[in-house]
Amino acid sequence: MTQDKKISVAFVCLGNICRSPMAEAVFRHAVKQQNLESYFEKIDSFGTGNYHVGGDPDRRSAATCKKHHVPVNHKAQQIRPRHFEEFDYIICMDESNLRNLNRIKPKNSRGEIYLFGSWNTNNRFNKIVDDPYYGGIDGFEYNFEQVTYFSEEFLKRELAL
Length: 161
What we know:
With about 160 residues, this protein is an alpha/beta fold. It has helices spanning about 20-35, 60-65, 85, 95-105, 135-160; strands at about 5-15, 40-45, 90, 110-115. It has 5 helices and 4 strands; from the N terminus they run βαβααβαβα.
């Protein structure tokens, strides 16, 4: 990929307080660590639901990122049909999000929808990034490991590094 065409990436879960803001933060951090900012126009995250719009990430999600020295700076927001024109990659965490995104995606829009687990190149992790909201901190830690690995694989495969 050349740097002439910058890409935009959106991460999506249900409420945009656990998985997708973590994925956004981890991905943004990986991009910065590898000095790849020039390849990206925009990196953001959304929820398919409007339950937490304007709210901060879940404290456990933020604490897990902080533990790994990954900064999180996000307010929950809901994805809208117009976002399918703003983003090239719309990456969701599970099949429920995938169904919801396919339902609201306008025909012939720019954005392509993927499961984040599509970048699970050696089946190291579960392909689905399960919602840790009703569980303990271990679920957030597992999510962090998943999204870190998937982010690294995305950067290798999509940018052909």
